[in-house]
Amino acid sequence: MDIYDFKNAFLIGFFMAFMLGPVFFMLIQTSILKGARAAIAFDLGVILGDISFILIAYYGSRSLLEKIKDDPRLFFIGGLVMIIYGLITYFDKENKKESLNTAKTIEVPIIKNNYLKLFFKGYFLNFINIGVLAFWLGTVLVIAPSLKMNQTAIFWYFAVIILGYFVTDLGKIFLAKQLKNKMTPAVIYRIKKIMGIILIVFGVILMLKGFIPNEKINDLIH
């Protein structure tokens, strides 16, 4: 694996970090509201989810994976879970406007973070998105043959992708943290509400993808 391959792999990871989805928004929210260490714990869970999908894509049979990734039941279940998660975020009892507005300070309250919980939260949120499996399956099917199915080269290629993704996420986390001092109770309230709505929207889209053929989706877009 030469330097050109490393550069390409790193760029894939870099651009992946800017793919708009529920994980992207939740990572930013976690960094702003709970701090950099909490966001890193969440992001490590997300990365473990990606690694799980890479291993499934690499070691699983192509025909089985093609069937799984297009199974409408999995899209439906994943979308439903995401919608439920969004509703919980939207109606969070800690997100009551009255309690936020009566805060005595405009500073973000100090929250005792459960890093293990955040880790599994990131893993779960990423793993329920079957679209991520489809992405990694496509990447494995393209990259592995180009590297002549050399396991060592494939390992390092995907390791660099994950590294590029994580390094870019670290930049996003620390940039988002700079906004923390500007977080008033009212702004926190709006962020949580918007986050819940975003999760619900992505959940609906995921469910629709399981029942509407890609051709029809493209026709609707165009």
Number of structurally distinct domains: 1
- Structural shape: globular
Unreliable stretches covering 5 or more consecutive residues: 102-110
Number of helical regions = 11
Beta-strand proportion: under 5%
SS class: mainly alpha
- The counted number of beta strands is 0
Overall mean confidence score, pLDDT:
77
Q: For the report, how would you describe the main beta sheet?
A: none
Span between termini = 40 Å
The ordered H/E elements are HHHHHHHHHHH
Over all CA atoms, what is the radius of gyration? 19 Å
Helical residue percent band: over 70%
What does this molecule look like?
With 222 residues, this protein is mainly alpha-helical. It has one domain (21-221). Helix content is 79%, strand content 0%. The protein has helices at residues 3-16, 22-34, 36-59, 62-69, 72-90, 97-101, 115-127, 130-146, 151-177, 185-211, 214-221.
Secondary-structure map:
Blueprint: H1 3-16, H2 22-34, H3 36-59, H4 62-69, H5 72-90, H6 97-101, H7 115-127, H8 130-146, H9 151-177, H10 185-211, H11 214-221
Helix pairs in contact: 1-9, 2-3, 2-9, 2-10, 3-7, 3-8, 3-9, 4-8, 5-10
